[in-house]
Amino acid sequence: MTDGTDLEDGFVEPDFESTLLNAFSLIHGSRNEAYGPFAEDYQRVSNVFGALTDWRPVVMTAELALLFMVSMKVSRTAFALSSGLAYENPEMVKDSITDAAGYLDGLWITLNTPYIVDVDDDEQEEEEED
Fold first, then answer.
1. By the 8 A CB rule, do 86 and 93 touch?
2. In angstroms, rounded to a whole number, what is the distance separating the alpha carbons of residues 86 and 74?
3. Against a cut of 0.85, is the pTM above it?
4. Each residue of 63-82: pLDDT tens digit?
5. CB of 35 closer than 8 Å to CB of 76
6. 45: Cβ contacts below 8 Å, ≥ 6 apart
7. CA proximity to 117, closest of 60, 66, 58
């Protein structure tokens, strides 16, 4: 890898994209516009997930983690629909719909593929005591 291009004030521009700068530009730009502010976005996600789990405290299994991700995509699609952004630019919800389908397929795969969850010895002892 090279040192990149020298910039003013002695800073060097790297030869690779910055994931932090890309993330910053997305969450303070197009993603913020598409999904709304973080607190509102994830409150909607929380509401969807709460409804899916009947508002009970849950242990986050792989299956529930996948449902949580589906909740996020459903929440974001709902926001795009209610704000009208989905109708102005239907392509903008394509990502969320595609991802939700992928997470649901992952759920199906997970349900049909046996896997073992390692439980810490302390947790196992607590369960045996109950």
1. yes
2. 13
3. no
4. 888 999 999 999 999 999 99
5. yes
6. 68, 71, 72, 75
7. 60
